[in-house]
Write a structure and sequence with these properties.
single chain; about 180 residues; alpha+beta; eight-stranded antiparallel beta sheet; four-stranded mixed beta sheet; globular
């Protein structure tokens, strides 16, 4: 597993590759990481690193996201010394809030949070409460036994965020 350290407002540091700074040009990114696995508009995808990179209108790197959580296959991500995919959602939110020292956009609370001072964002598709509601509904329909494995897998997955990203200063506040 390739280790990738996310450093808010700075960039990432990739084991055996080195730093990749926010603000780098597309050419600089390719010089460091090589050709992307896929490129769409102003986004590069690097499958081997499980990363999505977004570029602004000037072609500068403005956002880096680890996209294969909570169970990445090829990478081990860290931020502030913890693996965000091994720390349950509430604990991760506490760590990110402390480091942010300021406003948090929680308009999509439970699913998505943006830490405005540190330009860090986290996202997940479902929460534990969502899955518990699904379990109750499926039990009521008498279909629990045939769905139990999937439901228990989803219940475990819902405890964590599925992506984490860092952006340039002001990324989430539109500055």
């Amino acid at each position: 597993m390739k280790k990738i350290e996310f450093i808010p407002l700075v960039g990432i540091d990739i084991e055996n590759i080195g730093p990749l700074d926010l603000g780098a040009s597309q050419a600089e990114v390719q010089a460091i990481l090589g050709e992307p696995s896929d490129a769409l508009d102003d986004q590069y995808y690097y499958d081997e690193l499980e990363l999505r990179l977004d570029f602004n209108d000037q072609g500068q790197l403005e956002f880096i996201e680890s996209i294969n959580g909570p169970y990445p296959q090829k990478t081990e991500v860290s931020i502030y010394g913890v693996n965000p995919f091994q720390v349950e959602a509430d604990e991760l939110l506490q760590i990110l809030s402390e480091k942010n020292s300021g406003p948090v956009d929680d308009a999509e609370a439970a699913y998505c949070y943006a830490f405005l001072n540190s330009s860090v964002g986290v996202w997940r598709q479902m929460t534990v409460e969502d899955i518990q509601e699904d379990i109750e509904a499926i039990k009521a329909e008498g279909e629990y036994e045939e769905n139990v494995d999937m439901l228990l897998e989803d219940l475990e997955k819902a405890k964590f965020f599925w992506t984490i990203g860092i952006g340039v200063e002001g990324y989430y506040s539109g500055q």
